[in-house]
Amino acid sequence: xxxxxxxxxxxxxxxxxxxxxxxxxxxxxxxxxxxxxxxxxxxxxxxxxxxxxxxxxxxxxxxxxxxxxxxxxxxxxxxxxxxxxxxxxxxxxxxxxxxxxxxxxxxxxxxxxxxxxxxxxxxxxxxxxxxxxxxxxxxxx
Amino acid sequence: xxxxxxxxxxxxxxxxxxxxxxxxxxxxxxxxxxxxxxxxxxxxxxxxxxxxxxxxxxxxxxxxxxxxxxxxxxxxxxxxxxxxxxxxxxxxxxxxxxxxxxxxxxxxxxxxxxxxxxxxxxxxxxxxxxxxxxxxxxxxxxxxxxxxxxxxxxxxxxxxxxxxxxxxxxxxxxxxxxxxxxxxxxxxxxxxxxxxxxxxxxxxxxxxxxxxxxxxxxxxxxxxxxxxxxxxxxxxxxxxxxxxxxxxxxxxxxxxxxxxxxxxxxxxxxxxxxxxxxxxxxxxxxxxxxxxxxxxxxxxxxxxxxxxxxxxxxxxxxxxxxxxxxxxxxxxxxxxxxxxxxxxxxxxxxxxxxxxxxxxxxxxxxxxxxxxxxxxxxxxxxxxxxxxxxxxxxxxxxxxxxxxxxxxxxxxxxxxxxxxxxxxxxxxxxxxxxxxxxxxxxxxxxxxxxxxxxxxxx
Lengths: 141, 458
Known about the structure:
Largest sheet of chain A: 2 strands, antiparallel
CATH superfamily of the largest domain in chain B: Cytochrome c oxidase-like, subunit I domain
CATH class of the largest domain in chain A: Mainly Alpha
CATH architecture of the largest domain in chain A: Orthogonal Bundle
Helix content of chain A: 40-55%
Strand content of chain B: under 5%
Mean pLDDT of chain A: 96
Number of strands of chain A: 2
Order of helices and strands of chain B: HHHHHHHHHHHHHHHH
Oligomer: heterodimer
Shape of chain B: globular
Order of helices and strands of chain A: HHEEHHH
Low-confidence stretches of chain A: none
Distance between the termini of chain B: 16 Å
């Protein structure tokens, strides 16, 4: 093996392989960014939706929930919660927190205003309309 | 030690271990919250405990990587570190920023922390693993730049070896890719797409370069095998890591809105991602088999073999388990991901940092034989097995939990809702918590090993 496969060959595989696949990855990324508008419906990102994303982030929702399957696995998937529970539910749910049922997982009350709750719901509605290749498998998330 | 400036590695290693303890304590808290839902509520809500758990992991591994660099770069470059003073100053800045961030998570509601730190000026917070306030992220960039300058100058002015060049490539990659944490578009799909450029391209990309170079360094030291042989292995390992791992990013693009061709690219290339880990395992065992010296530090060799094996299991086997798109359709976002994440991080990155600490600490502490006494090594061996077996158990229990989750919620005829399903799998969370406590005991034994025997050198 020492004779056939030398260190300089290994080095060339490293440099050549890395550069080739970096370029391929960049090309696929370019193609993806061109294809995305069809799938993410960015035309529907209103100021309210954008504000909803900020609220989502500034309350660290991802620390318990998943969104399109990414995040923490402590609480339900929210990418499709708008479709699962329908309009109005999200707002009522957040206002009713925490349940304070002994022994049950608790969600804090984030003291959001009506306007903020509407924005959050708008963000989750928009998220539920992203083309996710038919994921999740069913409505439970 | 050969160069006196290598001593700056010591505080980095000590801080790493200290933060590691914090990480595990919060892990045990979270594990309990999975089954006793209101434990410590509202004092420490789950999301806060999770931020502390994951952020401490990242920070202490970075401390470990920096300590490893400060230790091995002077020895490889055959010259003193460019500026030991800068290294020490950055140590205190990084530690201060880290502690401040954790206190911020614990003492202030997250929304208030966002407001206090001016998140609205440049919003980067509230994304998984990148929860740090923007100002802290900027601080991390400054510290890493100073660190890169310091080791970079040392490497460029000294003897250049394959190990230091690979290490430097990995560290520069780490710094450059972190810059994507400042890109937070309103469009969630774009946000997620480039978020992975930090997260995936770190742990399944450039961090593998760092891991492989540290492993190569320790193997040269403990086995005495010829550098030429080690370097050839190193090149081929990192070549395979990047060739498979770059396009392998695609396994995160299946269900987040990206085009569906990623299901092919992601499946095929991430199915190849175990290759570098197989090679790393072959590498470690072959080198130890062909060793040319008997190094008295047996436990460092055990960690080196252990990291190769457990990284292969955690990243390779458990990664492959759920990486093919048709499988991932059902497993995405379940406890199977958590199972894989735990074993992969422990095997690849926790264990490589513990490998270099195990090798370097006795030397940094001035032990003449370059190793701890037999009694201390025996203690550390116990710690090795306790932590490793506990982590394997955590992984197995979470794997069962994840499989049940998939069946009950996504495959059964009458799918259960999330919380109903969680109640049904509580047993496996209890078992995981038990294994977590054993891990903590192993960690205590690990720390105790530093204080065993050999009083005069302690």
